[in-house]
Amino acid sequence: MTKILISVDIEGIAAVFERQQAVRGNPEYERARRLMTAEADAAVRGAFAGGATEVTVVDSHGPMGNLITEDLDPRARVICGRARPLSMIQGITPDHAGVVLIGWHASAGEYGQFAHTLSSQAFRRIRLNGAVVGETTLYGGYAASLGVPLLLTSGDDRYCAEVQAQFPATATVCVKTAIGMFAADCLSPHRARDLIEDAVRTAVQGHAQARVQHPVPAGADVGLLVPFRAEVEVTTQFIADGLSLLRGVERLGAETVAFTAADMREVLQTLAVMSLMGGSLQQ
Ligand SMILES: [Zn+2]
């Protein structure tokens, strides 16, 4: 049995470049979700060609109901909708052979298209044990804590550079070069799909040799290890006021709070609550 989990976001998909494409309710979004679905489908084909026996696709953007499921390879299962305890990596279990992230993006506070971490409304930057972290650090780190390797990720060049720094053994597929937050030099979506299919096939074929990596912060020699101290810079003082009400959360400054966690699951759960609260504390 070779189980592969493929989590798909929208911001790092080839030819997705502007805010409207990530927000429901307009024609550009309808186009972007088709591009997202096609890259997910390419990854599914690659996974099965590489020897996967079970593939689950996890819809991981915004309301988490973006993929046009009827257009996906019928061999794959799909996890969609929210709220979910493990959010962008819902469905992961220790018996998975590997995780693939398609269409992901750079961390909040860093360069890259659509750079954000969990919530662009709530969070300006998140540090774990002093290192700036993003969604890949958090979810890839959680998978590592279960013994599941991060096999491959795709997105823009800035995102791929982050992944290469934090998970050096993980394959990356760069489908566009970020020019700025909402501008990119993109591959043809067709070319991007071909690259993704090939690279996922190769990564899944080699899963037995893949290393389980705890993400390595910039400048450090060792991966992030428990316990974790999270420092969260939020976008407004009002959000920090609200988040400080949570048990165990410490106020470090006008727009900074902190908490400690025994493992990555606790980090994910606390940040999920903070993200939801942050959304309701918009001024
Ligand atoms: Zn997203």
Automatic annotation (TrEMBL):
InterPro entries listed in its UniProt record: DppA_N, Peptidase_M55, Peptidase_M55_sf
Species this protein is from: Novispirillum itersonii
Entries under Pfam families matching the protein: Peptidase_M55
Binding sites annotated in the UniProt record for Zn(2+) 2: D9, H61, H105, E135
Active-site residue numbers: H116
Binding-site residues, Zn(2+) 1: D9, E11
Superkingdom of this protein's organism: Bacteria
Alphabetical UniProt keywords: Aminopeptidase, Hydrolase, Metal-binding, Protease, Zinc
EC number: 3.4.11.-
Lineage summary: Bacteria, Pseudomonadati, Pseudomonadota, Alphaproteobacteria, Rhodospirillales
Identification of the protein by name: D-amino peptidase
GO molecular function, one term: metal ion binding
Residue ranges crossing the lipid bilayer per the database entry: none
